Q: What sequence folds into this?
């Protein structure tokens, strides 16, 4: 919604940023399915999907902030504090999504949002692979072993990315349509 991207400092946009941060945290906390991996403790969750929706809905800055707070807050409060700083790579996802969306002139057609969901999933695979390499290096493995270990640990990320590609358009349009109805009734 263009309203929230343009008025990023309005009270309404700031409240929605906090709300999205809480929803992202809850989206990870409520549904998380651990997956065995050589590096880290990956799990399947909806945090990435909700972060992509926040970025599309709120714009670059507020969507990224909501993602960092929601994902980083979960990490800090649930035993991932040592690597929670790596959540800052949400800047990459936010930057890529925003650049492509800007290239689409912010047209939220079904085709464009589906493409953006796929791009969010693919970008998340890349950033998670990089995070896994850093995590492996932090515990003292060699670079080659870190590369292989990170690659072998990608199944949860691929599942999360497929979920992001499918669920982002569904959630975005549901939220967009609901907010249009609410705004229409309020005015």
A:
């Amino acid at each position: 919604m263009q309203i929230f991207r343009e008025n990023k400092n309005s009270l309404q946009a700031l409240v929605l940023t906090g709300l999205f941060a809480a929803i992202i945290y809850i989206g990870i906390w409520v549904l998380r399915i651990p997956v065995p991996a050589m590096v880290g403790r990956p799990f399947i969750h909806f945090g990435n999907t909700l972060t992509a929706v926040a970025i599309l809905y709120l714009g670059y800055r507020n969507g990224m902030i909501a993602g960092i707070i929601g994902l980083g807050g979960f990490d800090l409060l649930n035993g991932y504090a040592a690597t929670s700083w790596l959540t800052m790579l949400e800047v990459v996802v936010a930057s890529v999504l925003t650049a492509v969306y800007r290239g689409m002139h912010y047209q939220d057609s079904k085709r464009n949002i589906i493409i953006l969901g796929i791009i969010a999933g693919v970008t998340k695979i890349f950033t998670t692979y990089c995070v896994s390499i850093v995590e492996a290096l932090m515990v003292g493995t060699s670079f080659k072993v870190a590369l292989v270990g990170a690659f072998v640990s990608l199944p949860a990320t691929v599942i999360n990315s497929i979920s992001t590609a499918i669920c982002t358009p569904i959630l975005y349009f549901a939220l967009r349509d609901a907010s249009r109805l609410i705004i229409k009734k309020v005015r």
